[in-house]
Amino acid sequence: MKHILVVYASHYGATRRYAACIAKALHARLAEARDAAPLLAGADVVVWGGGLYAGGVNGAKLLAKNAEKLRGKRLIFFTCGLADPEEPADLPALQQTAQRALPAALRENAAVFHLRGAMDYAALSPLHRLMMGMMKRMIERKGDAQTGEDRQFLDTYGKKVDFVDLSAAGPLAALLRAAAGDAAGEIR
Ligand SMILES: Cc1cc2nc3c(=O)[nH]c(=O)nc-3n(C[C@H](O)[C@H](O)[C@H](O)COP(=O)(O)O)c2cc1C
């Protein structure tokens, strides 16, 4: 059986919830991105997930730093954000963000997934709250040029939302099972 390592970078826990669920179902080791480096050599298949922040992926710098250690391994990369991958208008931007975060040498062996996250404005750090406030003002200034994603941002602004759906990680886990040659438990 191949060794699977599940790595995550998460500020508020949504990415961690997906990563922990995948690791549990696949009996895989779970590690935070900042602790992953020494564990990579022993892994055949690596799942790497990061939350989306202002069009970037949390942990992308660590991924780039570890690119050499990941080269030649099967990589399953997922992002976790509020944008809806089921929304045709949102998908191209999500794909672009993921491709930008993936070091060029790893793209060929990588499968990419997008999972929906959560947000509790009351729990945000001062910097993140400031960033969201700036984004709100920018979107409001767009007026009629607002997109569906913009309107969704305004609808959820200041609130607590949770779109985490662990069953959405099922296709990722199925791919992982095939890559690892393992028939471990179901994602629930
Ligand atoms: C400052 C800030 C910027 C964000 N930018 C994006 C974004 O560009 N796209 C997106 O889909 N979600 C964005 N989000 C939402 C987060 O991706 C979402 O809350 C996710 O669940 C965070 O995962 P984590 O809790 O694992 O860090 C942003 C959230 C904050 C606080």
What is this structure's SSE topology?
Blueprint: E1 4-9, H1 14-26, E2 29-32, E3 45-53, E4 56-57, H2 60-65, H3 67-70, E5 74-81, H4 91-101, H5 104-107, E6 110-116, E7 118-120, H6 126-142, H7 148-156, E8 160-162, H8 170-180
Parallel strand pairs: 1-2, 1-3, 3-5, 5-6
Antiparallel strand pairs: 3-4, 7-8
The chain binds flavin mononucleotide.
Describe this protein's structure.
One of its GO terms (molecular function) is menaquinone-dependent protoporphyrinogen oxidase activity. The protein has two domains: 4-117 and 163-180, Rossmann fold (3-Layer(aba) Sandwich), CATH 3.40.50; 120-160, no CATH class. 40% of the residues lie in helices and 22% in strands. The chain is built from eight helices and eight strands, in the order E-H-E-E-E-H-H-E-H-H-E-E-H-H-E-H. The longest helix has 17 residues, at 126-142. Flavin mononucleotide binds next to helix 1, strand 3, strand 5, strand 7 and helix 6.
